[in-house]
Amino acid sequence: MHPDDRRTALRTLSLAGLGAALGGLLSLLLRWQLSFPGRPIPLLGPLLFPDHRGAVPAASYPALFTLHGTVMIFFAVTPALSALALIRLPPLVGRERPAHPALHRAALGLFALGLALLLAGLHARFGAPAFGWTAAPPLSTARSPGAGATLWLLAVACSALATLLGSFDVLATIVGAPKLAWSRLPLSAWGHLFAATLNALFLPILLGALALLFSDRHLGTALFTAPSQPGGDALVYQHLFWIFGHPEVYILILPVWGAVSDALARAADRPPALRRAVVAAMAAVTLLSGLVYGHHLLTAGLSPLLAQGFMTLTLLISLPSAAFVASWIATLHGASLGPDAPASYSLAAVVLFVLGGLTGIPLALVTTDRFLHDSAFVVGHFHLVMAATILLGLFAMLHEALGRLGLRAPSIPVARLHAWATALGALGVFIPMLRLGLGGAPRRLYDPDLYRYLHPLLAWQRVATVAAALLFTAQLAWLVAWWRGRR
Amino acid sequence: MPPDLSADGHRIDALLRVSIGLTAALAAAFLLALAWVVHRARQRARTAAPEAAAPPAVAVALGVAVLVFAVIDLTLAARSHRAALGPPPPDALRVEVLAQQWAWRFRYAGPDEVFGTADDVTTLNDLRLPVGRAVALEVRSLDVAHGLFLPLLRSRADAYPGRTARTWLRPAREGRTELACSVLCGAAHYQMRAEVTVLSNEQYTHWMNGLSDDQRRRAAAGEAPPPGAWAWGP
Ligand SMILES: [Cu+2]
Q1: Predicted TM-score (pTM) of this structure
Q2: Do B19 and A233 touch (CB under 8 A)?
Q3: ipTM for the complex?
Q4: Cβ separation of B182 and A136 shorter than 8 Å?
Q5: Which end of chain A has fewer CB atoms at under 10 Å, N or C?
């Protein structure tokens, strides 16, 4: 690997690791508050919240989950995938270097600038941004005075621009590869290609939505506010945001699907089963991803016909998803599978993906979504996919990428233990969330104890918190094992 | 699922049970198949047994898996469509709900059931409903987006400022329950809670008449209205 690319990739990965550590730590604070509402956090509490006896203050809670979601999506998973594309892609398409490595260098700078702006926003007057990672107006505009929210807008815009630049490089690297044979393009490359395509299509919409929020905040417009003035409509932002927000899920998971397919095939020493069907399924998901966003608005008063349409299209995502899982099972059928680190991560990822994908069905149905919308069930569902499956998929990719960076990956037994501890931890965190949602627990609630009907569910909150601690510890253990044997 | 106090919640609960059951069954099928295949593959690696060729029917299995999902998807979509609540009956009791950071105001049309007359009644964080009668709720927001969520009455409507959200329900059992705000609306979002009481028809009429007389008398005496008793726009 070219030393310049290596440096860019290593730095981008380190930034993503930093983001993931921060996001993970924040999730532990959230978990603690949900299972022991109002009680002081052990160890960290007195340092973070000295004025509140070490307990999470009610006003800080929304800021904590806003930062958790923003960091994890825009400054952990996204830069990690950008770096992994830079490392993995050139050899997959028979190139020495990516087409435009300078784009990835610029992306690194923008990611770093964005993270710095985001963290600067925590200390802004009138407090840190506290409107959730979707930044719905007018909560994020008229009702969020101070620089914190503006810095949040700029930070996310930096991440979006960085991702766009990286995606342009990915597209140019694949499409411009000399001697490119589409019929032999590895599934990993297809994953990066489709993800980059979605980035190029939908990130501009996010940037547009952010620009309009900025305009409402600073240029005196009332595009998304002011019920008294005709013209402004907060619901328009919801459409804009989710037109990007739903494809974002597939942007993050398409490379994982490709990597899992290739890792299992390599471990089984045979080509991926039904390769062309998998490419077709990826294409189908890419296409559908832009047509299903309305399921985020099923309870916002869509016309019944529109709601039915979005429901049916959303359910159809299960067809290509079933094709992926069928292909993975077929790849291993009759094969011989020795100990292999990326394969272990991939298998764990498949388990989590099966559960995460299938729990989307009750959410897609208009009727059951009336009960489950904005509940802990939603949080459990999308974390099974976006946190657990993607984390395991990233490790499957990272394990090989470390070799190309000239670093030693942890041993196979360590990797296997880590993969299954992570999977178990994730199941322990997110299955209780599904249960909580079925019990009617709304998400983003600082103190569920205020509601009588939620009292019987407190034990599930505690199970999730214990499992979250296990999940976090497993990541620390991996880091220690890797650091000690890295050279 | 928490207890159901409504007459129509069973539609949601039944479909929820079916879809969760299917989700669990399909997950079990996929994961067992995966576990079996991986177990055999690991055995082969340990015993150095020869690999079996991939069965020729793989493409068929994939086709079947996709087809099974297509059938399940369409069946569930059709069931969801059939379970839809439709518009409220015309004789439904109408209640206007005004959400704001961080409280719920409810306005009833009073004993005469006509809005905008002197016997209108408003309450703060206190929603009382007669058992057995359909109730149509119209929800508006004064500031940011809020979410009206009645878990035990299986009802929900998200209210965006400048828009009117509608939902309706039919309480089937008397009792006390809670209403939560389900859309993040700021620092005290978690406290945006209202008591919900389903009363017998006699109790409800008694409460409504008493409250209406009381609020009218206070207004006539020029007294400051009780919390929540102010006029809001059409
Ligand atoms: Cu609210």
Answers
A1: 0.95
A2: no
A3: 0.93
A4: no
A5: C
